[in-house]
Amino acid sequence: MRIRLVIVLILAAAVTAYASAAIAQKPQTTLTGAAQKFVGETLRYEGKIDKILRGVTVAELTFSAEAVPGRPEIIIQSKAVSKGTLLKLFRFSFLQDYESLLDIDRFRILRTRKHDVQKQRVRDSEAVFNYQARIVTFVESDPKDAMRPPRKIASEISDQMYDMISAIYAVRLMPLAVGTRVELSVSDSGLVFRVPFVVAGREVQNTIFGKISTFRIEPEIFGPGRLIEQKGSMTIWMTEDDRHLPIRAQVQTDFGKANIKLKSYSKPLPR
User: Fold this and answer.
1) DSSP 3-state assignment of 248?
2) How far apart are CA 65 and CA 78, in angstroms?
3) Residue 15 contacts by C-beta under 8 Å, 6 or more apart in sequence?
4) Which residues pair with 261 in a beta bridge?
């Protein structure tokens, strides 16, 4: 049981890191507005657990996206994969592929697709957001068992929804200041949650860019009725400059602490 909860800890940290997904520009497509600052970014992260595997990388996180040609949409793709340490010590491996389709004009989620592999367990799912009908429809299937009926969930939504990826993008687009508090409607696996994000302070962090000033942001996702129904806390550090780059994330629970740190960042020069 303890090992399974440690894995939950890693995956929770991965969810945070998804928020930093990058947008790769296609020459034939032009994005306008505030989201233009994301175009061309590529961010890569490493995840570690301090309590059990101090200093050993147990997960790699990569993020990329592209504009949809001819449409005011972007597809953000996020990937988290376990490192060999987990398999060697705990006989556990995981792979998570997420794809989020966003309406760039309204900056709201249109569709989320997931491919989730945990050891021998595989699940594929899709959440479709119908704003006219004000409903999100979630369907999850087991590709290894065609005879198994898909799991379906439908929930009422508001006219401005996010998944965890687009929620953090939304925070990146905001004018941040210490004391800022926003509450966003976030859907995960067909359910809808109200997630508060609080700018709790400023801190200087050691990063791949050197020592820089950051905002410390605390999404309230742990606890009864929240996204993760267990005790814990999550913190994201974003650069204080206009980019608001998520350079570090931390998840703390009774079973240990997981750290996600930015290991590489690139962005092509403007053409």
Assistant:
1) strand
2) 8
3) 164
4) 46, 248
